[in-house]
Amino acid sequence: MLFDAHVHLGSWPFSFLPEYNAPQLAAHLKAHGIGRAAVAPLAAVLAPDPLPASRALLAAVRKVPALLPLPAVNPALAHWREQLDLAATGPLRAIKLYPNYHNYKLESPRFAPFFAEVAARGLRIVIGVRLEDERHRYFALNIKGVPVKSLAAFLKQYPKLHPLVLGLYLPELRELAKAAKNFSADTSCVEWIRSAETLAKEFPHDRILFSSHTPFFNTRAGVDKLTSGDLPAKVRTAFESANAERFFGL
Amino acid sequence: MRAIDIHTHPVFFGKGHSRREANEFAAYGQSNGIEHMIALGDVLVFGKDPTAKQISFINDQTADLIRWRPDYYTGFCCLNPTLGEKPVMREVERCVEMGFRGIKLEISNNARDACMKPVMRAAEQWDIAVLQHSWSMTNIRQRSYHSDPEDTCLLARRHPNVRVIMAHLTGCGYRGVLEAKGVDNLVVDTSGGYPEAGILDYALEHLGADHIVYGSDLPIRETSVTLGRTLGTDMSESEREKILHLNTRRILKL
Fold first, then answer.
1. Model pLDDT for residues A172-182, shown as the tens digit of each residue
2. Domain residues for B169?
3. Taking CB atoms and an 8 Å cutoff, what residues of chain A touch B195?
4. What's the complex ipTM?
5. CATH number of the domain within which A241 lies
6. Domain with B19 in it: what CATH number?
7. What is the total count of domains within chain B?
8. Could you check whether the bond before residue B219 is cis, i.e. omega within 30 degrees of 0?
9. What is the pLDDT, as a whole number, of residue B1?
10. Average pLDDT, chain B
């Protein structure tokens, strides 16, 4: 079964995405061969404080073992330690950051204490680069993907961190890979003819994680992208689940 | 499953124009269940305003694909409508004689511009379809030469005897679907953009399966992903058959 590194639970006001509660989402993913998923709270993306949505997520998936909660954290808010406290209670011991939606730059020196604390607590970092194609997002939501330059500066600043970066386009992934080695990436927004083979050919096999980006993207489309690829068995296993299990320490 | 891909670019920015590459591209499609492809040409290789000579070069490359693999490729004639009536009519006639079944329009002009009249007249005269690149211009400020779905639907309404394919369902978005509602001579293709959830369901609800055709935009996109979205959207088998190949056969008279 696949491990999906990029799933959200909740609703999104700018599109007609399918809406699921936690058991429905787990059943939907299972029907597409996804056994477990790292699930972030969608309500946290636009909320002034992500903590209530993260708490709600933990409660919603408590009895749904296939969904592993990934609390959202906004380090620009004064109560970031309280947010990290909550993240530390989850089974993944990981946090999800949305720098562009939460209006901060990862590489800003003001976050040095935050990332030091994250490292000290042994929390894993997952960075959401984008949720939507910027070309047809809601017109008044003028939010672009996190720039590669910003990610590269962040990775250079914290060479001992190894975040998972979600939602990079293939050209962005190529550019970032030239600038840094200390990150992993997902498959959701990497698309070109023979995507899986391209990823296997161009990037270290231990740093690519499968993701469907459900509910934003059609789940089957994301699964088929990987499963239809002509990959050696070892690489397929790494992309499908082994890399995610290692990243999250499962 | 049977499927025809109405939106492909086997030659893309100079790559893919050889018998070997044409065969490899076809083999890729066949291995993913695509039994036939519509080749639209290397439409942006010379930028948005190709000359008459450059247009002929692009269409000659498409003609080569058809010659090499007549079983697998059907060609569309790439045009620059701003070149005027004579060059347009001459090129369409030349392409039709080479067996092309449609016209492909990119971003030389907006679909509502007056220069589209001879293009549509040629399409009607030769009984071929017109595929117009379309994308929501809400966030892209290029409408003077880049067609919004509103423009493409207006084009179709102005020329009810021409079969119009509005490209890029995801790029056209929900507003584009609503623009297309009730335009009998228009279908929207599913090519382009990421496999966003919800939009194909919405198109099915508002346009019906008769007005949707499968397309990928290869090689920019991936067949498994574009097909996967169609196969992973809730619809009846007869609706799926229409979208995947029957509508394209009907529109292009294949």
1. 999 999 999 99
2. 3-252
3. 217-218, 221-222
4. 0.95
5. 3.20.20.140
6. 3.20.20.140
7. 1
8. yes
9. 86
10. 97
Nearest to A228 among B32, B139, B221 (CB): B32
Q: What is the extent of the structural domain holding A67? A: 2-248
> Which residues of B fall within a CB distance of 8 Å from A135?
135-136, 139-140, 171, 193
Q: Are A92 and A70 in contact (CB under 8 A)?
A: yes
A220 CB neighbours in chain B (<8 A) are 228-229, 231-232
Structure tokens, B143: 């409408």
B206: left (phi over 0), alpha (psi -120 to 50) or beta: alpha
Q: Do A17 and B28 touch (CB under 8 A)?
A: no
Q: For A197-219, write each residue's pLDDT tens digit.
A: 999 999 999 999 999 999 999 99
State whether the Cα torsion B141-B146-B221-B19 is positive or negative.
negative
- Is residue A159's pLDDT more than 90? yes
- How many independent structural domains does chain A possess? 1
Give mean pLDDT, residues A3-16. Answer: 97
For residues A60-83, give the mean pLDDT: 98
Å between A53 CA and nearest CA of chain B: 23
Q: How many residues does chain B have?
A: 254
Beta bridge partners of A95: A125
Predicted local confidence at residue A9, as pLDDT:
98
CB-CB under 8 Å, A193 with B223: yes
